[in-house]
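Hello,

Our lab assistant flagged a job as stuck in the queue for most of the afternoon. It eventually completed. Since we weren't sure the result was trustworthy after the delay, we are filing this so someone can double-check. Below is the sequence as submitted and the structure that was eventually returned. Let us know if re-running is recommended.
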Amino acid sequence: MTGNEFKMMRLDSAGIEKAQELGDIFTDALHDIEGIVPSGRELSIVVTRLQEVYFWAIRGMAKGNAAGAGAPLVSDYGKPFDYTKSFASPLRRFA
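-- returned structure --
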């Protein structure tokens, strides 16, 4: 469990593009769900869980690529990670 657990990881432009693609998929899924599930606690939980899944998908993508798996999606420049410009923005309207 050691290694990249607390290392600053930054998605490069290819990673951000993939994160945005995932965000579009989750946004479309949530739009479909909103057409079926009425507003209320249950829908709020669905939104929260989709946000969590999206976060973990991006984190997994970053960690996997930092370990050398797949295309290089992670850059580590020592700069703070700007969540508003990557995976948080497609779901911002649900916050």
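-- support follow-up --
The delay was a queue issue, not a problem with the job. The result is valid. The CA atoms of residues 61 and 73 lie 8 Å apart. Residues 10-94 form one domain.
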